[in-house]
Design goal:
It catalyses: tRNA(Trp) + L-tryptophan + ATP = L-tryptophyl-tRNA(Trp) + AMP + diphosphate + H(+). It is an enzyme of class 6 (ligase). The chain has 15 helices and 5 strands. It is mainly α. The chain has 2 domains: about 5-190 and about 300-325, HUPs (Rossmann fold), CATH 3.40.50; about 210-290, Tyrosyl-Transfer RNA Synthetase. The chain has a 3-stranded parallel beta sheet with strand order 1-2-3. Strand 1, helix 1 and strand 2 form a beta-alpha-beta unit. Helix 4 (about 60-70) packs across helix 14 (about 270-295), helix 5 runs parallel beside helix 15 and helix 9 crosses helix 10 (about 155-170). The longest helix is centred in the C-terminal third of the chain and has 29 residues, at about 300-325. The chain starts with a strand and ends in a 7-residue tail after the last helix.
């Protein structure tokens, strides 16, 4: 297991189908071939929830249960809590002195999120600088591979800039650069057709959704607004239902035939939505059952999180010690 992988999520709500198809299945596979750490990034969750911290603290165990329910094994993957690793905050402080405000403001991912959250001039300092915190997370574990969506590529670029600057200050290779691992499936749109499925936008199907919630969500999905009658030819491009069928229907040949029928005309949107509903209900039913079982034992979940965090602490503290020395601040070492 030569590859070291770091991945994670902000615990601001339960994980959803976008997480599942974009990264969770990938993480399950990677734990057999790599040394993988999953970080529950609760401190980063506060960057836009500082005044409503219960939204973060109240979802930590939900996210952990989501991981376990999809097949993440804490015996093969270290699962740890960001706030339980003080070295990450220390590294963030060091790195903040190497990154300019203008560099953060140019980050396209941050710019898009600031616009989407409509902060205006009231941008929390923590939110503007959270890419520095992500760089601290990645480098603390000396991760050389980071599973991300394409919208997170600017974060990897900034992390490697920090690595090079620290190494320049140190005069040696204290930190290692990382590379992104993109998922095979592109970013999943929300059920409302918006570009991204998001908990904050309310357009997500969570892993804990029951059958009725799934059915309601699928009924709301956009198809082709010009497909007014069954016999009308319909468009597949931009059709959210087909996007989801591509991602979740195991019968690829069936989806291909349905696309052809839809484009010719004669296939009802309701038939497509019925098929998608059945696919998603079949996928999420066992996950939902396992998730509920894990959540029924909060002490067991906390034990898993405590064990993983303790494993991660020594590794992150060693990285912080080296960076501290690079800045000449290791007086008491």
């Amino acid at each position: 297991m030569s590859q070291k992988i770091l991945t994670g999520d902000r615990p601001t709500g339960s994980l959803h189908l976008g997480h599942y198809v974009g990264s969770l299945t990938q993480r399950v596979a990677l734990q057999d071939t790599s040394s993988q750490t999953i970080l529950i990034a609760d401190m980063q969750g506060l960057t836009d929830n500082g005044h409503t911290p219960a939204k973060v603290s109240g979802n930590i165990l939900n996210v952990l249960a989501d991981y376990l329910a999809v097949g993440i094994d804490p015996e093969r993957t270290v699962i740890c809590l960001q706030s339980g690793l003080p070295a990450l905050a220390e590294l963030t402080m060091y790195y903040a002195n190497l990154v300019t405000v203008s560099r953060l403001q140019r980050n396209p991912t941050v710019k898009a999120e600031i616009a989407g959250k409509q902060f205006g001039a009231s941008i929390p300092a923590g939110f503007l600088s959270y890419p520095i915190s992500q760089a601290a997370d990645i480098t603390a574990f000396r991760a050389d591979l980071v599973p991300v969506g394409d919208d997170q590529l600017p974060m990897i670029e900034l992390t490697n800039e920090v690595v090079r600057k620290v190494n320049q200050v140190a005069g040696s290779e204290v930190l290692v650069e990382c590379r992104p691992l993109l998922s095979k499936v592109s970013r999943l749109p929300g059920v409302d057709g918006k570009a991204k499925m998001s908990k904050s936008l309310g357009n997500a199907i969570t892993l804990g959704s029951d059958d009725a919630e799934i059915e309601r969500a699928v009924k709301k999905m956009y198809t082709d607004p010009n497909h007014l009658r069954i016999e009308d030819p319909g468009s597949v491009e931009g059709n959210v239902v087909f996007t989801y069928l591509d991602a979740f229907c195991p019968d690829e040949a069936l989806v291909t035939r349905l696309k052809e029928d839809y484009q010719r005309g004669g296939l009802a949107d309701s038939k497509l939505k019925c098929l998608l509903t059945e696919c998603l209900q079949g996928l999420l039913a066992p996950i939902r059952t396992r998730r509920a079982r894990f959540l029924s034992d909060p002490a067991g979940l906390m034990a898993i999180l405590r064990t993983g965090t303790e494993k991660a602490r020594a590794e992150t503290e060693e990285t912080a010690r080296k960076v501290k020395a690079a800045f000449g601040l290791d007086f008491f070492s």
